[in-house]
Amino acid sequence: MGNDGGSIPRRNEMVREKKQDEKTDRKTQLIAMNYFCALSKQPLREPVVGDMLGRLYNRESILEYLLNPTVFGDGAKICNIKSLKDVKTLNLRANPAYTTSQTTKRPVQTFDDQPSAPFVCPITRKEMNGNLGFEFVWTCGCVVSTQARKEMAESNQCLVCSGPVDSKDVVPINSQNSEVLDLLRKRAKERALETKKSKKVKTKRKHVDEPDVSDTRSSVSVLDKNTKARKTVA
Questions:
Q1: How many alpha carbons lie under 13 Å from residue 57 in its C-beta half-sphere?
Q2: Is 71 left (phi over 0), alpha (psi -120 to 50) or beta?
Q3: DSSP secondary structure string, 185-208?
Q4: How much helix, strand and coil, in percent to the nearest 5, is found in the chain?
Q5: How far apart are CA 90 and CA 178, in angstroms?
Q6: Cβ–Cβ < 8 Å for 65, 75
Q7: Is pLDDT of 29 > 70?
Q8: Which helix or strand (DSSP H or E) is residue 136 part of?
Q9: Where are the alpha helices (DSSP H) in 83-212?
Q10: How many Cβ atoms are within 10 Å of 94's Cβ, its own excluded?
Q11: Whole-model pTM?
């Protein structure tokens, strides 16, 4: 080892290089997540849907997966989608500078070496390319950059459609923060419980509002008997 003109790398240099490689891998993954469907790995194209963890899919890929869970191989590991109720169709602003061929000609590897993103923020016009944070509202599906929401005055209305917005319904897109993902899972469970409760309430109201058919038939029967009795007397 010493007479070949080379040098032995120090431990701190090896650790630094490893961290740099991991950082590059995360960036590459984040870029891909904003350009391609998480299931089919095909370029994202509308209609696009997002799940409760902020992952993006082509809607047609979700339909294929629901019909045949093995169609994409490891689909069950990628997502936990049981029906279309587990995803939200997104209201996205298309990027005029984007073409599908840009993402299919060569792989996207770095933020400096990537084609135009398929979608942009309707407020700031910034591209949704993984470099900036984006989010969508679960109730309406509108997508904006996190920067746009923070720069606008605090409001309970959607920046795009002006619909009502609860902070619990804001879903960060493609977050890689484990704490954020845990919070989104918790919110998803809470939303599912609220849906079940509302269904039970609606069912109870329906039963209360519906007339008792047996009582109605009894009343009709009594009326028929009284009518026959009058005719007999007459």
A1: 29
A2: alpha
A3: HHHHHHHHHHHHHHHHHHHHHHHH
A4: 45, 15, 40
A5: 23
A6: yes
A7: yes
A8: strand 134-137
A9: 100-105, 146-151, 178-209
A10: 11
A11: 0.72
DSSP 169: G
Each residue of 103-145: pLDDT tens digit? Answer: 555 455 454 567 889 999 999 999 999 999 999 999 999 999 9
233 CB neighbour count, 10 Å cutoff: 6
189-210 confidence digits (pLDDT tens): 998 888 888 777 766 666 555 5
CA pair distance 136, 55, nearest whole angstrom: 11
Measuring CA to CA, how many Å separate 17 from each of 28, 155, 176?
16, 44, 21
In the block, which residue shows the tokens 């993954």? 29
Interatomic CA distance for residues 123 and 148, integer angstroms: 6
d(CA 54, CA 51): 5
* 121: nearest Cα among 110, 129, 112, 113: 129
Q: Which two tokens stand for residue 128?
A: 């949704």
Six token digits for residue 149: 């929401």
pLDDT in tens, 144-172: 999 999 888 778 899 999 999 999 999 99
Q: How many helices (H) and strands (E) does the chain have?
A: 7, 8
Is 185 in contact with 53 (CB distance < 8 Å)?
A: yes
Give the residue among 207, 168, 198, 202 at the shortest CA–CA distance from 185. 168
| Tokens matching residue 32 | 């891909």
